[in-house]
Amino acid sequence: MSFFIGMIVNAALLSIPIGASLGTMIAIKPFRNDIVPIATLNDAIIQMTYCDATHTFHAFAENKNGVNFTINSNEILQEPDSVLCMTITENENATYTSNSTVPEFSITWEYPFTVANASVPLNESKPLIHAFPQATLQDTALPLPIIDLGQLVLDFVWTMGIGDANSPSTSELRLDAQQVNSSVALDMYMDADKTKASEGGEAAFEMIIFFANFGLQDPVGFGNASIFNDRPSIVTTTKLGGVSYDLYVGQNAALQNVFSWVAETPVTTFSGDIGPLFNIILNLSTMPGFAGLGVNIPSFNDYLGYVGFGTQAFNSEGHVTFFVPTLNIDLRPFGGAVTVGK
Ligand SMILES: *[C@@H]1O[C@H](CO)[C@@H](O)[C@H](O)[C@H]1NC(C)=O
Ligand SMILES: *[C@@H]1O[C@H](CO)[C@@H](O)[C@H](O)[C@H]1NC(C)=O
Ligand SMILES: *[C@@H]1O[C@H](CO)[C@@H](O)[C@H](O)[C@H]1NC(C)=O
Ligand SMILES: *[C@@H]1O[C@H](CO)[C@@H](O)[C@H](O)[C@H]1NC(C)=O
Ligand SMILES: *[C@@H]1O[C@H](CO)[C@@H](O)[C@H](O)[C@H]1NC(C)=O
Ligand SMILES: *[C@@H]1O[C@H](CO)[C@@H](O)[C@H](O)[C@H]1NC(C)=O
Ligand SMILES: *[C@@H]1O[C@H](CO)[C@@H](O)[C@H](O)[C@H]1NC(C)=O
Ligand SMILES: *[C@@H]1O[C@H](CO)[C@@H](O)[C@H](O)[C@H]1NC(C)=O
């Protein structure tokens, strides 16, 4: 069960001392509840930190004039002496810059390196994922047949840094120095069955866009001999907002067909429609050599049921903070009025 550590109304940012041990971070509760709420006309700014030992948080973020979001811890593999916390900053009036805004949030985590396959020599080992906390779109238009998808407009700014504070920008040197293995991704599920498409875990198809991939982890399908070109495992490459994204395709252990787009350079700010990536996936069967990939592809009549944006936590030698000051996920059904978004 989750509980919140602190609620600060129109007050300074929550400050957990940098270098605080795992224990102290979990132990501070309640936090600074001595601060008296400032009287306002219902437009207070409410900041809450979820930080309990079971790493279970599930925040509901209402956007009064638009779509709601939930933010979940989504821990996949528990470890003793690990950390997974979230801070969210919401407007009491539940009204934001646009109708597709996710309130500002940050995730602070630490997990040890857990080897994916004990038979592989340690110097060649891959890490297991521990958590994939993400903000999930609660749009009533979902599940949506892919044929009816007009645009999926994404607009974000994020940073990843070491320690507990929100980093002003992302330094790969700092992340490397702390041996961070982590990704930032938009995660989507599709299936012929509406319920399976919405629940993710049992969906036949997953499309995931890695805006950054720091570390040793490989996308599903990495390591297969190149079928289409001379770059190992890459099925195709496409440009989005001036950056190239490489597509990897394969089935995971649960036999889900996974389509992973990996940005060739980290994308920390983005504003654009990711709809074109669906078209490439749907059209893969026309590619010579497609059969060699050993996957099925979704069809236009399948449903897009799940859209979430977050960070994959593999391992780090110290706390990592993923900070998302700006996030809008704006699903626009085909032909629908384009009234939301920035
Ligand atoms: C809602 O609250 C925010 C934060 O205080 C404020 O900036 C905004 O103007 C308010 N919006 C409305 C419609 O009251
Ligand atoms: C968002 O959540 C509020 C509160 O639960 C609910 O009344 C509203 O219908 C939801 N909006 C949408 C678009 O689902
Ligand atoms: C683990 O690695 C060994 C040695 O490379 C390999 O034979 C085996 O198939 C791997 N197991 C899994 C589940 O990938
Ligand atoms: C791992 O160590 C083995 C034996 O020392 C060596 O042959 C191999 O090249 C190393 N692999 C990497 C990726 O460095
Ligand atoms: C990933 O984790 C391994 C093991 O802790 C570490 O050696 C490496 O520096 C990390 N980061 C990257 C970018 O490989
Ligand atoms: C490589 O593709 C084959 C299908 O040709 C598939 O059976 C195998 O699991 C794939 N390997 C990886 C590592 O994805
Ligand atoms: C589908 O792929 C084929 C060959 O790979 C290409 O000629 C065609 O233009 C593509 N269609 C779309 C709609 O992208
Ligand atoms: C948000 O939705 C409301 C009600 O549907 C609409 O009046 C308003 O113009 C929208 N705001 C933006 C920024 O799109």
TrEMBL record:
Example GO BP: polysaccharide catabolic process
Keyword Signal in the entry? The reply is: yes
Entry keyword set: Carbohydrate metabolism, Glycosidase, Hydrolase, Polysaccharide degradation, Signal
Q: What span is annotated as the signal peptide, if there is one?
A: 1-23
SUPFAM superfamilies under this entry?
Answer: Concanavalin A-like lectins/glucanases
Is Hydrolase set as a keyword in this record? yes
Q: Which InterPro entries match?
A: ConA-like_dom_sf, GH11/12, GH12
- What GO molecular function annotations does the UniProt record carry, in alphabetical order? cellulase activity
Which family is this protein grouped under? Belongs to the glycosyl hydrolase 12 (cellulase H) family.
What is this protein identified as?
Glycoside hydrolase family 12 protein
Provenance organism:
Hyaloscypha variabilis (strain UAMH 11265 / GT02V1 / F)
Q: What is the lineage of its organism?
A: Eukaryota, Fungi, Dikarya, Ascomycota, Pezizomycotina
